[in-house]
Amino acid sequence: MDFRILDASAFYAGVPFRSSSDCYTTSLVYDEIKHIKKNHDALGTLLETNRLKIREPDTNSTKAAAEAAKNTGDYPQLSKQDLSVIALGIELDGEIISDDFAISNVARNLGLKISPIMTQGIKDVGKWVHYCPGCKTNHESGKECPICATPLKRKLLKKQ
């Protein structure tokens, strides 16, 4: 089956308007982008011709997406729309089209196919950790070090 799962950046880049592939998105993403090309009703045409399908991911896929995002440390950077795209990718096992680095990191950690649009995409995949540059300790989350109160920084521990 030839289809793609689109996040908002894919719509802004015009992907569904110049592609012959079927496209899926979620209602959360659709609500975010439905103003695009409103004067020409381009989205309406895609829906009427069944080239754009709006589908909600199931509960298990949604929970799996949130858990994966928490495991990589990307959860705070992801919106509900972003998580819904990852969940749909899990459920349909389809190619996700996105320029969002957090979506890309979670998707690639899950073994999903992801393609960037206007960027080169991410090179390194891994898990984000918070660290204190003052006392050199690692922390699961937070804004400041509980030991010395220095503001925490984030770094990506690359997957081997």
TrEMBL record:
Source organism: Marine Group I thaumarchaeote SCGC AAA799-N04
Family, as annotated: Belongs to the NOB1 family.
GO biological process entries: maturation of SSU-rRNA
Domain of life the protein comes from: Archaea
CDD domains (UniProt xref): PIN_Nob1-like
Domain Ribonuclease PIN: 5-92
Task performed by this protein: Toxic component of a type II toxin-antitoxin (TA) system. Processes pre-16S-rRNA at its 3' end (the D-site) to yield the mature 3' end.
Protein name: Endoribonuclease Nob1
Gene Ontology CC: one annotated term: preribosome, small subunit precursor
A molecular function GO annotation: RNA endonuclease activity
Keyword terms, alphabetized: Hydrolase, Metal-binding, Nuclease, Toxin-antitoxin system
